UniProtKB/TrEMBL annotation:
Protein name: Prostaglandin reductase 1
Short name of one Pfam family: ADH_zinc_N
Similarity comment text for this entry: Belongs to the NADP-dependent oxidoreductase L4BD family.
Cited SMART domains: PKS_ER (SM00829)
Underlying gene: PTGR1
The organism of origin for this protein: Strigops habroptila
Amino acid sequence: MVTAKVWVLKKHFEGFPKSSDFDLKHIELPNLKDGELLLESVFLSVDPYMRPYSQRNMKEGDIMIGTQVARIVESKNPDFTVGVFVVARSGWRTHFISDGKDLRALPPNWPESLPRSLALGTIGMPGLTAYFGLLEVCKMKSGETVLVNAAAGAVGSVVGQLAKIWGCKVVGCAGSDDKVAYLKKIGFDEAFNYKTVASLDEALRKASPDGYDCFFDNVGGEFTTVAINQMKTYGRIALCGAISQYNDSVPQKGPYVQMPMIFKELQMEGFIVSRWNNRWEEGLNTMLKWVMEGKVKCHEQVTEGFENMPAAFIGMLKGENLGKAVIKV
Ligand SMILES: NC(=O)C1=CN([C@@H]2O[C@H](COP(=O)(O)OP(=O)(O)OC[C@H]3O[C@@H](n4cnc5c(N)ncnc54)[C@H](OP(=O)(O)O)[C@@H]3O)[C@@H](O)[C@H]2O)C=CC1
Ligand SMILES: CCCCC/C=C\CC(=O)/C=C/C=C/C=C/[C@@H](O)CCCC(=O)O
């Protein structure tokens, strides 16, 4: 008999999540039936979407939603071998039983030397968000100027590096000087700390006096209001996330975007990465190749211990992560 530890949403978040909103529970798992397998989580992901998702789609007492890299420890399913690592969407749990239908194997050519946690980051959902968001939503072209915020995070750091690979000038903003130094190290042309600049408007203008063709927006709110005025005519804005609004108890009000959108003939499109589920393999293979070739660098903020998942989640929302925030069980 295996006992799984799980993190439950004890109380719906009000404003910023608190440790007391979570409960750690123990669940005894039953013996496997034919066709089932037992998995243990090795790495788990904390992602910004968990905050708005919990509000809309979860009840108090539900296990937190989330993705993990897990190892098969027992199998009564001939399609799955013990010892194999997969990506699962089983929430914040140390162990779980699956019928195998929702599991995704890591790419078969995954090198031994490469941390499997990257399947939750650059070679996983966040990396593909950058890949498809830039290619299919921003439709950026070589020679254009791309702006990305939350640039030192899981998605933003990949956006900047892909835009460089595809021949663009890249401007990134992040919330600490260490993050800004990291952006320069990984090839951003311009980077600044949005928390310490005297004027965001001036900092954006200084970084690209001619304006921006593409804006990959991870932040929303006031940042978007300022940045939209610096788009070039026919510019494209990919609305990827709005993390500056996820913890608001009272929704923010305008200013509104219509006037700059009309005058500059802009396109603004929201997207969810799962739109490209049918191209997941293409995206993963491309990211894996570029990581192995050293063209895309990865940084992870690894928190040790399943017990520390709420702290890692809260820390990520506060900006304590450089690169992808993951938990090592
Ligand atoms: N549309 C889609 O399919 C997807 C969307 N997303 C979205 O992309 C964005 C980035 O996600 P991800 O890369 O995983 O997370 P990150 O790794 O970037 O971590 C979140 C970062 O957001 C920044 N942040 C937090 N609060 C604020 C704020 N008030 N203003 C500005 N920045 C803030 C912090 O960085 P800093 O120190 O710079 O402030 C923090 O490190 C999120 O909005 C997320 O919801 C992610 C995946 C898929
Ligand atoms: C799915 C929740 C949507 C909430 C929207 C809020 C903010 C935008 C955002 O952050 C969206 C994230 C979407 C993530 C989707 C993930 C799934 O497709 C699971 C991927 C599993 C995997 O890693 O393979």
